[in-house]
Structures are given as C-alpha cells and as structure tokens.
Amino acid sequence: MEEDHEAFYFALLTRKEPRQESTFAATRHISSSEYTEFFMTSSQLFGITTLTYLFATLFYVFIFVFKAYRLYFIAVTSTAIAFLIQTTGIALRWYESYDMGIGHAPLTNMYESVVFFAWTIALLYLGMEWKFRTRILGLFIIPLAFLAMAYASFSTEITKEITPLVPALQSNWLIAHVITCFVGYAAFAIAAGMGIMFLFKAATDTAKSSDISISAGTLPALRTIEDLIHKTMLFGFIWLSAGIITGAVWANSAWGTYWSWDPKETWSLITWFVYAITLHARYTRGWAGKRLAWMAILGFFSVIFTYYGVNFLLSGLHSYGSS
Amino acid sequence: MKTTTQIWDFFASVKLAIFTLCALSLTSIIGTVIPQGEHFSRYVNEYGSVLAQIFQVLDIPTMYSSWWFRGLLGILCTNLIVCSIDRFPTAWRLITADQLSVNPERLKRMDHHATWTVSSSLREASEILTAKLHAAGWPTSSREEHDGIILASQKGAWSRLGVYIVHLSILAIFAGGILGSFLGFKGTVQIPETESTDKVFASGSAEPIDLGFAIRCNSFDIEFYDNGMPKEYRSHLTVLDKGKEVRDEAIEVNKPLSYKGITFYQSSYEGYKDFLLRFTDTADNKTTTFKATFQNELDWSEKDLRFGVINVEAQGNQVIRTKIWLRDGDQQPLTFWLKPGEKKEIQLQGKAYSLSAKQMYATGLQVAKDPGVWLVYIGCGLMLAGLYMAFFLSHRRIWLSLSHDGDNSTVVQLAASTNKNKTGFSDIFSQISRLLTDNGGRP
Ligand code: HEM
Q1: ipTM of this model?
Q2: Among A14, A134, A163, which would you mutate to test the B interface (most chain B Cβ atoms within 10 Å of its Cβ)?
Q3: Of all atoms in ligand 1, which is nearest to the CA of residue B13?
Q4: How many helices (H) and strands (E) does chain B have?
C-alpha cells in the first residue's frame, strides 16, 4: 500500500457552538449578481427604493418650507410608491434565495433587517396617515426610512449577500422574533419622529415671532401629537414585549435556555425598561408634553443601541470573551 | 403603626417602581460593557489590579446573579406585590360596581354629557331609549327612582384587570425562573456514535450529573452547503431506561428530545479520526458495525475477513470519500473508494452484504432540566394578553337619567365616561347622542 500514503488532511476536532457558527470559516458566498436572469435584482430595486424615499423626503421639506400643502398628496404617493417597490424587492430577494437553493425569508442578517426596518416604518406611517390623516407627519418619519435604506445600500459594514443559514437560525421562532421586534422598533422610530415634531412645534409656539419663515402653526395641535406619541409607544411596547418573548422561546428551543443575559438580550430589556418607565412616569407624575417627547427620543436611542450598537460597538469588547 | 403604614406606602408607590426600573436599566449596562464570567486574571490584564479587585468585591464578573442585582429584582417584585394588593380592591369595586347607584349630580360633571327633552311619558321614553341602546350593542339596566328613571350600560369593565395581569405575569416569570434555578440544571455532554452515557456535566462547574437513565447516540449525520457551512446536523438517539430501549428519536438544532423532564438539544459535533464501517446482511438486514482507526487493520474472525481504511479525501471538514481495503481469507485484497452513504455489495461465504463507511462523529448535546419553564411561558402569555387589555380596551360607561317634565314630556340627561383613550371616545359619545336624540322623523 505504499502508493496510498496520500495526506490525511481534513480538519479534525471541529467543535462548533451554534451561537458562534456565523464565524464559520471557508465560506464562499454566491454573489447575487450571478442571478441576473430577471430584469432586475432585489438590490437594484432597493436602490430605487432609496432614491424614492429621498425624493419623498425632499418633497415633504419643500411642502413645509413653501407651505405648499396642496401638494401633500405627491409626497404621500411617492412614499407609497417607494413602499411598493420595496415590497417587490423583498419578495424578489426571497425568491432569489430559493433560486440559490438556500431558501429562507429575507430577515436573517443585518442588511435584510435594516431593509425590513425601513419597510415597517413606511408601512406604519402609511397606516397612520390613512387612519389619522395627520398630514405633515411624513416630514418627521420618512427621513428615517430613507436613512435606513441609505445605510443598507451604501454601508461597507454590512454584507448584502444572501447567505445560507446555519442550523440554529432555521427556526420559525426566529422569523416571528425578527418581525415582532422590528414592528416594535419601527413604532418607536415613529414615536421619536413625532417627539421631534412636538419639540419643534413647542419651540416655535413659544417663540411667537411672526418673522419665522417656516410656521409650525400648520402642524397638528400639540395635544394631538402628544396623544399620537403615547399611542405609538404603547403599540411599540406590546410588539417589543412579543419580540423579547419570541426570542426567549427560540433560544429555549435551540439551547434550552430562554434567557442568558447576553448583551443583545440585556439591551433589549433595557429598552423595554425605558418604555416601561415612561408609561409609569406618565401615570404618576403626569409626564406629558415635552418630557414625553424627550422620552420617545431617548427610548429610540436605546433601540438604536440595541440594534446597532451591540453589534458594532460592543462586539469588539467581547471578541475575546466568546472565543 | 405609623411606621408600618409608611413602609407599606413606600413599597406601594409607583415612585419606587420608577426608581427600581431606572436602577435596573442603568446597572444592566455594566454587564454588557464588561465581559461576564471571565477568570480573575483576565480582568487584571484588561483593567488593572485595582479595578479588578473592585469588580471582585461587587461581583461584577457575574453581576446578573450578584446579591445587589438580585436585591433590585427583589425590590421590584415586592413593589409589584404590595402595589397590587394596595390597589386591587379599588379596581375590583370599579369593575363590579352597581352602575345604577350613581348620583345624578355627578352625571352633570362628567366629561361627556348632553340634555334634551322628548315628548313622551317617562316609561315610554325609557323603553325607546333602552331598545335603541340595546340595538347599538349596549345592554342596559334600569332602576326607578322616586322622581324618575336611571338607565345604565357599560362595556369593557374587565379591561381594568389588564394592568394587574401584566404585573402578575412579571411575577410569574420571576417565579418560573427561580423554580428552574433551584430544581433544574444545565449541562453538556459529548457522545461518540454507537456509545451511550448516563451522566452529563454541569455547565460552569463541569460536575457530573446523573440522568437516572442512559442515552445512546446511534448515529450522527451532517449535511453541508456548497460553501462548506453546515446546513443541518442530526443525531439519532435512543433512551435506555433500566436497560430497556424506551425512546428512539432523531434530534436536530431547534428540535430537541425530552424524556422525564430532561431535554437534549443538538448543539455541536466533533469529527473523529475514526471511521464506522457497517456490514448489512442483505438477507435479514442485520447490521454489524466496526470502529476503524485510520490505516489500522480490523479482523472479523467469524467471517475470516480483514479490512481497514487506508485513505481519505476531504474538503474542509467534509469527507468526500474513504478508501477501504478488504481481504476475504487468502484471496487477493480488494480496494475501493466509498462516498458517504454509498454502499458496496460484497459476497462473503455465499452471503451478500452491503458495506458502507463514514467518518465517526461525536454529537455534542446541551442538556437542560427546567421545571419552571412552563410558568415562564404562562407568564409570557399573560403579559401579552394583559398588555392588550391595558392598552387597547377601555371601560366605557353610559348613564341616562330620565325625569318628569310635565305630563307628556321627559327630560333626558345623558352622561358617559371612559378610563382610557378619551379623545377616541368623543366620537363614540357623539354617535350615541345622535342615535338617542334621533326621533325617527317624529317632531
Ligand atoms: C417591568 C416592570 C413593569 C411593567 C412592564 C409594567 C407594566 C405596566 C403597564 C403596561 C401599565 C399600563 C400603563 C398604561 O395603561 O398606560 C402599568 C400601569 C401601572 N403600573 Fe406597572 N409595570 C411594571 C412595574 C410596576 C411596578 C413595580 C409597580 C409598583 C408600584 C407598578 C405600578 C403600576 C401602576 C400603579 C399602574 C397604573 C395602574 C392603573 O392604570 O390603574 N408597575 N404597568
């Protein structure tokens, strides 16, 4: 058997914890540009979406600055168009993943979740527009959808590729978890947008100078805005609670531990506490008006940190801890 | 007596709740910035010995189970319990209150009220209004007073329980967590294919824990994506209780196996340098399995057969094929390549066998016993139900006070209140008053 002394070369002792599998070496991603038999790819559609949100944003600003309120329907329509293009893009990306033989809902990495975040913001905004007819509200919300899409499209921090799922991520609880969390996050984003709107209006109301070129007088009444902020926060709170719960159920079905105080879990709990504090402060100390607006903004910072900061700022600190 | 009331009021106050929630949020940040559960020397290297000492004293390396963090959680629970006991009776009275015993003077001072006169007798008016309210989905009760009639209707009284359900759900989750930490365990174990174990090792301390039964890993399969990432892995497990095979199940990540309250989760795997060679008798389907070390000769003396694995081809972690040699008695040795899952038909002493070869693995299992998890899940369900009740349902009440105003004329006084969503209720109120004042075309 002399001639059979070929090298024995497979990697031995490959022990992998499911939680760390995303670091699995030797991956060769199939780039989505290999799948251009469609007239367009999902990332091209997302590019158009980004531009349409930008257009809508600029239009809201235009309307506000030039008091061209009769043109409001153009801004709302372009938001709706952006939303439809984005919906198509998400569906196409889902299809592409099946076409690559990977087949999973487009909700499993940072890029996909940012896109979904922007989509949910637009969806909730359109819903509020339809239900409450709040008009200029879009000025304070659609920029957030635009920024999220711009970050997804242009950031070099996150990969746009469709990657296969490691076994731990192949769970319906994960899908439920991502959807519920992001509906919550989007509601909190809208509450923060309205918080800014409230503070802006409150500031211009007290300034009372007639020479302010942009009048905030056309914004909804402070009480209306405040009521909407509160309602949106309640809506977000119930979804965030559901998000934390589905995450815990998922962890329990994958590892037998529903809560392990990892930074992501802990930050989602901190965010949950921030909103719980706001609810109670409103109840007892009558925290309303400006304070509520500030809490909506503070809470959204906590959301951003949970979502973005934990991945990109804390991960460096923990890289040695997790090896 | 006075101090007990003071202490009670302190623990019943929402101010304390706000304080505790703030304290929990702020201190929770520490453990997300300072890595948890490292060895002392790590902290010395990273933060210097003075800080590391302080960390040690304050239990920072395991802060979420430290005395002070648990203390804060304890305060939160006490606060919740005392606050609920303090307030619940009032809420219960509001839910079960007899609406008809309202003071008509109070009606005038409610947020929503309206007064009008109808040209019908007291009794007639009462019947018409009751019918209208009933048709609009407001079941109505009435009472005759000495100078008139009171009608009352309400919806969503039970929604006042929502907040209590939310608060109770938090206590249920805590109770479930405590139950699990006292009566349960978390452990891990690695079982090589074909072997069994009746012990697992506690996470953290690595102390052995007796299962009270044994678990065997019959086989382990793994599938890969084209890029080499694992797609799915699966262990075929058998539970052996008192030597008897009681359960046969394949587990995957996200699909665990439970037996007698202990759950086995597929969590990892380890590839061995050994191989499993399986001879299956085609006649009776009986399988004989051999564990082969690389380039070592095995002897199946019963069949006068010698064989072994002489070569392997692999890509990354994935065995592409295995080269087997096999010698039946004194005959010329055979060598052939086998892919995983592929079967080679061979004849031995007139009997047909099929032979397959695969790399041997050990399956890595996470093992958990958590008798509190059901309570946690009930808590989670209650929380969502309670939040829905607290946020989206409200207790809405309507009163009608009818009084004589001459023979064929009655004064109707309508009043309504809600405990939540006051702006939205204005619309409902105007609908109701329109419905009730509408006299169906009559003057
Ligand atoms: C993480 C902990 C807590 C959560 C998630 C929570 C949740 C809630 C929610 C959702 C509401 C309803 C708010 C609304 O309808 O706008 C509420 C109200 C309330 N909570 Fe809490 N709570 C917590 C802790 C506490 C604690 C410790 C106390 C102790 C004093 C407390 C006292 C109250 C009171 C008095 C109300 C108002 C009840 C009413 O409307 O009659 N909460 N809480």
Answers
A1: 0.87
A2: A14
A3: 30
A4: 10, 19
Q: How far is the CA of B97 from the centre of ligand 1 (A)?
A: 23
Count of A-B CB contacts under 8 Å: 178
List residues bridging with B233 in a β-sheet.
Answer: B222
Of B22, B294, B391, the CB nearest to A238: B391
Please give the DSSP secondary-structure letter assigned to residue A93.
Answer: H
Domains defined for chain B, CATH in brackets: 2-93 (no CATH), 97-156+394-437 (3.30.310.80), 182-271+363-376 (2.60.98), 273-359 (no CATH)
Token pair for residue B376? 């946690």
Distance between Cα B16 and ligand 1 center (Å) = 12
Which atom of ligand 1 has the smallest separation from the CA of B160? 41
Where is average pLDDT lowest: A202-206, A265-269, A276-280, A293-297? A202-206
Q: Which tokens hold the place of B229?
A: 């990432």
Q: Round to whole Å and give the CA distance between A99 and A38.
A: 11
Please tell me the number of Cα atoms within 13 Å of B238 on its side-chain side. 14
A261 and B366 within 8 Å at the Cβ level: the answer is no
By CB atoms closer than 10 A (0-12, 13-18, 19+), residue B81 is: middle
Pocket of ligand 1 contains residue B79 by CB under 6 Å: yes
| Rounded-to-integer distance, Cα A195 and Cα A217, Å | 16
Task: Note the residue count of chain A.
Answer: 323
Q: What is the pLDDT of residues A184-228, one digit of tens each?
A: 999 999 999 999 999 988 887 776 554 444 455 567 788 888 889
For chain A, domain boundaries: 37-159, 169-323
